[in-house]
Structure formats: structure tokens, C-alpha cells
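Could you please consider the sequence and fold following this short note?
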Amino acid sequence: MERENGDRQIYLAGGPLVAVLLGVALVPLRGFTTASNFTFLFMALTILVAELGGRAAAVATALCSALSLDFFLTRPYLRLSIADKHDLIAFLGLTVCGLITAAVGSQRGARARSLRASRQQLDLVHVGLEQLERGLATDLGLTRVIDASRRVLPLAAAVVRDTPGNLLAATERAHGMPVPAQSLGLDALAAPAAPDRSGQPLPQEGARLALVAGGRQVGWLDVWGDERRASVDSRRALADVARLLALILAGPGEGVTAGTAAGLPESASRE
């Protein structure tokens, strides 16, 4: 996610710069055709930036493309004024179409990012189920799940403790962090009251999730959020991770199987 935000900043600065450079590069050709014929190149640039850099970068690129077309490719040259009405139509058309392209293209990019996040969260649950199926050592299974959680979810660190508070597993940034004072219920976490799906970040001061399996508490999951917003889907994924960790901690003695973890009836799991 941090890398994705960095890429957006690059396109926010790079898109308008490329629009200016494109106008400069087309200067030798402005005597051979009208300015309206150059608008397609600027439109293609805006579409590309909208796909890769998001809405803000696309809007900035669309506006700079229109200004670049005006300044370098329409008469009078090197001035922000337009003498020919046909060039004015080309300028206005590029501006409007560029802004529409920015809006539509950025929405498609947002949907693609949401789908990518959903797939990562599904893979995270798969990692937890895989640890249950393999029957690995408890500490190894717990470590693999919380490490995968920190990579996928908006978490800075995570720790698993047993009921008395002994440390069982921790991510690399969690060692030495104090026990959080705040507790969160899994139901409240999975269904936040906030109507905004982008949600608020998870508590950076930390929060505790009770790990319950077979009707009894088997441990704690302590998590610390980072600066990223926690969507409804990511909160639900974190709640599912807590349930999987509880099953790993409980072990086979609790009579809870990977089938029930996936939501199947116990009889269907035995079949």
C-alpha cells in the first residue's frame, strides 16, 4: 500500500510534466497540421495516467495537456491565448474530454485496486486454513498467519498471547510494545458503525481481540494499526484471522476442524 501511494505521487508530478514535454516535442510538427489533430496524443496520455495514477494525477494531466496544447501548438505560439476559433474548440474539447477520461479511468483503477485487495485478503484466510490443515507447530503456524496479516492488512504490528499474557508469536515490529488497553469485539470489528466504507485506521495505540474457540477464550491478538484506512473488508478479514488464530491455538483437542472454520456444519466437515 505504501508503495502504491508513492506511485500515485510519482504520476501526480510526472503526468503534467510529460504533458508539457509532449507539447514541446510536437512543436516541429505544428506547421503541418491543425492543433486539433494533436489532441488524440494528449487524450492517450490522460487515459494512461488515469489508469496508473488515479484521479488526482489524471485531472492534473488533463489540465496541463490543455494548457500545453494552447501554449505550444495553437496560434499565437508561446502565449496562453487562442486566435483561431477551431483551435479554441480543440482546446475546450480536450479539456472537457480529458476531465471525463480522468473521472472514468480513475474509477476503473479504484475498482481494480479493490479487487486486488479482496484477493489478497482471501489469500490471507487461505494461509490460516493451510496452517490448520498441515498441523504445524503452534508457534510456527501463528507466526506465519500474523506475518501474512501485516503484509495484507493495514497493520503496523501484531502479537499473539496466551490467556495469562505470555508471548507466543510476534511480527518483527512488535517486540517490546506494551499491551494495548483497548479491547475490540470481533462482531463490532467486522461490522463497523461508520457508513464510510473507507473507514478509519485501526488504533495506532493498539487494540486487543479475544481469541475464542470451542466456547472458551484461548488467547489474545494484539494489533497496532498504521496510517492507512481500514475498509469494511479489511476489518472483516482481520476478524476472520482472529478466529483462525483461535483454532490454531486450541488445537485438535477442541474438536474444531478446518471445515467449521470455513463455515461448514460439523457433520459436513466429517464427511
Residues 1 and 162 are 31 Å apart (CA to CA). Residues 136-270 form a domain with the Beta-Lactamase fold (CATH 3.30.450).
